[in-house]
Amino acid sequence: MSSPVGGLHVLPVRGLPEFTAGDDLAAAIAGAAPWLADGDVVVVTSKVVSKVEGRVVPVPPGADREAVRQRAIDAETVRVVARRGPLKIVETRHGWVVAAAGIDASNVPGDSLVLLPADADASARALRERLRELLGTEVAVVVSDTFGRTWREGLTDVAVGSAGIAALTDHRGAVDAHGNRLETTQVAVVDEVASAADLVKGKLDGVPVAVVRGLAYEVPDDDAGTRPLVRLGPGDLFPYGSRDLVPGRRPAADLVPRDGDREAVAEAFRVASAALPEFPVVLRHGGEGDGVVDVHLPERATTTAALNLGALLGAVVIQLHAEGWTTRWEPVGTPGGSSLVGRLWLGSPRD
User: Fold this and answer.
1) Does the keyword Manganese feature in the UniProt annotation (predicted)?
2) Which homologous superfamily is 9-55+117-235 in?
3) Strand 152-163 to strand 140-149: parallel, antiparallel, or no bridges (unpaired)?
4) Who is most buried in 39, 183, 194, 300, counting CB within 10 A?
């Protein structure tokens, strides 16, 4: 366990160039900060890591940049968590739940977009080893990116990759000064380091690297990087965003926005779900006034689940059509895990 912190210095690394694919990022940092010392934490913006690793999407001349961006978001998405118009909160293949899959359109030329690093933990490990080779110093490395926070305005930097520093400081089981045993407290140290470093990097100052000095941190044996920060599966209490959740066996009466239609649609799902009481599905109204129900599988997709899903939707569609509704089914997302598997669009009853 780390010892108490006596005081910190956060130092910007200035004079770095504009990076492109194939550049030696570690050599540039070593040249600009030969004063790096053992125990320092080097915090690098993910954008420059992505640039040197070639994680850049070109925007062809004359192309609609936003359309290219939306395609790139879809390509990086494994699960749509929430959406409103063109804004999407998604889960990436890294496990991060983030707006627009972390794809950055700022501080880059208009003919390109920058993706998150493919494996920022591996990038951090490689950068740490290269700095050791160049300077002979033992430092930790954090790769940071800017995230929003649920139910809070503003942005802050968090860690998307790390090496040589434990991501979490675990206080569970410790006893505080009042004799209370801590049950759940784990401090996301690398996130705090990333946020502190951003105070001297800034968003508009062109300083992509900073050094946090004076932090007493734990060096892990396994160096799991930022993986311990990812909360998915049973620990994720908010897997479907902020809209109302509707259990498959007890849909609420407000699946669609039109007052006169709500009960008819809810009843269709009630009848269909009653025939498959063990089928694990979650329904969610897809948006304000857009007449859509999103269908999720809270458990890993299997052949049986797919067959049950087909049976459930078939029963719903048959009942809705018998009552004069129009429907359209749109597969969405990818199989496996806790994913959005499809979207049922609802049209007004025919006259």
Assistant:
1) yes
2) CofE-like (3.30.1330.100)
3) antiparallel
4) 194
